[in-house]
Specification:
mainly beta; Neuraminidase; 6-stranded antiparallel beta sheet; 4-stranded antiparallel beta sheet
């Protein structure tokens, strides 16, 4: 007697429904999954085991980051943290030591210079060498503007020639292409609670504090229009460095979208300043988590929470 396949493909994970009520197409053999551990589901519904991992370097590490060029992470010792560079062969070498212990590091790349800041120390990396964050000097007509060195913040981003630096509940904007100068009387934007995420788009910036998610529509604080687009915040550190091509998704917008996770699921930020919750109908996210990480890998978004 020839076996009859009952299960040939999966339509994804579904934790919203009781497992006995999961959708199942008996003719096609396609079903939702009540749970899935260490598996991949490709865009055809094929389920396969993940390939696992190899240990490359032992120790306590976090804040891994790469934006198409150099890759960096933080390595913790008993008394301090260090910035380490990860080469293409996955070997690790030191960049800077003596950092405040157990502090997440934010990185941003601007014209092949990597700027970094963890709320206690900051700096820049050029050709694998760390140095102090640059200091700018104003030159031009007399002005009553008050320029100061860039503050040391918890989150960094680059938008319209400016580095955005989050310090608590305030985001500061450096002068255009002058990362060492900030006009502290004009170039800032304040929120009601600590900033968790800064994700620039072509014509605006997605921002999350610890209460809600916003879109700043415009090119600078001079013309921003703030819109609250979600009554829930992003998971801190969960925005993917990469952007997703919207042409690959069944959405009504084209271009690139930003990806992050939230207590309500995985969100995609659209060029118009709107967001779509991609998992709200299928997944219940644990509400206790406030931090996360997201990676775009082909057709997959890999998201972790903690």
């Amino acid at each position: 007697m020839e076996p009859i396949p009952l299960f040939t493909a999966a339509s994804g994970l579904n934790t919203k429904l009781d497992p006995v009520r999961l959708r199942y197409n008996a003719e096609a053999g396609v079903s939702d999954l009540a749970s899935a551990i260490n598996v991949n589901i490709d865009n055809t519904g094929r389920v396969s085991r993940r390939q696992g991992y190899d240990l490359k370097t032992a120790g306590e590490h976090h804040s891994i980051w790469c934006d198409g060029g150099d890759c960096f992470l933080i390595e913790e010792t008993a008394s301090y943290g260090s910035i380490m560079r990860v080469a293409s062969d996955l070997s690790v070498s030191g960049i800077r030591s003596g950092l405040t212990k157990d502090k997440r590091m934010s990185f941003v790349d601007v014209n092949d210079i990597t700027f970094y800041s963890n709320g206690f120390e900051n700096g820049q990396i050029i050709n694998g060498v760390s140095s102090a964050w640059p200091e700018g000097t104003y030159s031009g007509p007399s002005t009553n503007r008050n320029f100061s060195p860039a503050p040391i913040g918890q989150h960094l981003a680059f938008y319209m020639g400016r580095i955005i630096i989050a310090v608590g509940n305030v985001i500061w904007f450096t002068e255009p292409y002058s990362p060492g100068m900030v006009d502290k009387t004009r170039m800032f934007w304040q929120f009601s609670s600590d900033v968790r995420m800064i994700k620039p788009m072509d014509k605006g910036v997605f921002i999350s504090d610890s209460r809600a998610t916003y879109y700043l529509d415009g090119s600078s604080p001079h013309d921003f229009i703030q819109k609250r687009i979600a009554t829930y915040p992003a998971h801190e550190w969960s925005s993917a460095t990469e952007y997703v091509e919207l042409d690959d998704l069944d959405l009504d917008e084209k271009g690139e979208g930003a990806i992050w996770s939230s207590p309500e699921g995985i969100c995609i930020g659209l060029p118009s300043g709107r967001i779509r919750n991609l998992t709200k109908e299928r997944l219940d996210y644990p509400k206790a988590y406030t931090k996360g990480a997201s990676l775009i890998c082909g057709y997959h978004v890999i998201n972790t929470m903690y």
